[in-house]
Structure formats: C-alpha cells, structure tokens
Amino acid sequence: MNAPVLDHPLTRAERLKQETHALHERLDTSIAGEDPFATRERYAAFVEIQYRFYAAIEPLYRDGRLGALIPGLDQRSRLAAARSDLADLGRAAPEVASLEIPAGQGLGWLYVAEGSTLGAAFLLKAVEAIGLSETHGARHLAAAPEGRGRHWRDFKDALNGAPLEDDDHVIAGANAAFAHVQELVGIVMPPR
After folding, report:
1. pLDDT of res. 3
2. Which CATH number characterizes residue 44's domain?
3. Which of 25, 27, 21 has the alpha carbon at shortest distance from 50?
4. Exposure check for the chain: N or C terminus, fewer CB within 10 A?
C-alpha cells in the first residue's frame, strides 16, 4: 500500500515529531516501565530526572538569539518549579552542569522540553493519587497561565516561523535531547 500523499510540506514541528518518534517512544516506554507514579519515592526519582534535564538546558532559556526567535522564552523555564518539587519531596536538588549544546541545536532541545508540557496534564492526574498537586510536589507539571494548548501552539508557531537555513541541526538537537533524558533515566532510575 502506498503512503498517503500530503498536500502540503511538513512544518518544522511536524518534521521534528516524525524524525524523533522512535527515540520519544523508547523514552516514554522506559519511563512508564519504571512505574514512576506508584510511590512518592519513585515519583521523586522522576522529578529528579526532569530537574537534571531542565538544569542542563537552562542557559537556552536565557540565550538572546533563541529569545529573539521564541517570544517569552525566558518565562518558559520550569527549573525553579522542579527544584521546589524536589524540596517538597524531601530530596535535595543535585548539582548539574550546563550542557554544551552545539550551535543550531538549541531549538531542538527546547522542542523536547516544551513538548513535555502537553503530556504533563496526564501526569498531573497520576500524581494526585499519591497526594501531590500543582501546588505541592508537582509544580513543574502545572499548566501555563494561558493554558497548555495555547502555550504549546505559541511555541510551535514560533519554531515553525524561525528563519533557519537548515532544519537538520534542530532535528539533531531534539534527538540528542531525547537521548540525554534516556541516559538520565538509566542513572536516576536504574532497573529494579
């Protein structure tokens, strides 16, 4: 059977989704396999993974070149919320060095970080079962003031409209980001 013919070229965000699908699925499967919402202890390990990722990419949120492409970028970081969540869970925030992200890949890393806000609605429901909420222990999962859908659409629209010479670097960045989080899962949540 032939693949359907698209009547329009893929947007940058659509291409990123397509090109990162395998790594994204692998990561989701490995995290789900660790049952991160079974107990507060398991969830605390999940939050530590999130915190380590956010801390490693925090400089991207303050990068003026990226900020010129993504309006309000400096307001999108969830690092402080994840730090507060760790404190609520009785876990110290680890020291994390910023990653040296190659030029041109930053938007790909941000795509992964910002895309995680959509699935956070389902995760928030799961943490309610262990007595946590968007005001205690799960702040980093809370919706943006304008809502999850609008927050993501605004990012996606800016991503799609960014004047770039080549999307391959952005795709490489997104794949590297998914691989980095997968590595963090292995470090923070080793198989039981």
Report:
1. 55
2. 1.20.910.10
3. 27
4. N
Residue 53, both tokens: 């990722």
The C-alpha angle with vertex 119 and arms to 61 and 63, in degrees rounded to 5, equals: 5
User: DSSP string covering 82-116, please?
Assistant: HHHHHHHTT-PPPP-PPP-PPTT-HHHHHHHHHHH
The number of folded domains in the chain is 1
Structure tokens at 9: 């070229």
The tokens 């915190």 sit on which residue? 51
Average pLDDT of every residue of the chain: 94
Q: Is residue 45 part of a domain?
A: yes
Residue 135 lies in a domain: yes
Range of the domain at 95: 34-188
Whole-angstrom distance, CA of residue 79 vs CA of residue 93: 10
Nearest to 48 by CA among 104, 101, 56: 56
C-alpha to C-alpha distance for 65 and 42, rounded to whole angstroms: 37
Q: Are 140 and 146 in contact (CB under 8 A)?
A: no
Q: Per residue in 1-31, pLDDT tens?
A: 555 555 778 999 999 999 999 999 999 999 9
Q: What is the largest CA-CA distance in the chain?
A: 55
| Count of CB atoms situated within 10 Å of the CB of 180 | 18
Residue 13 counted as domain residue: no
Residue 120 lies in a domain: yes
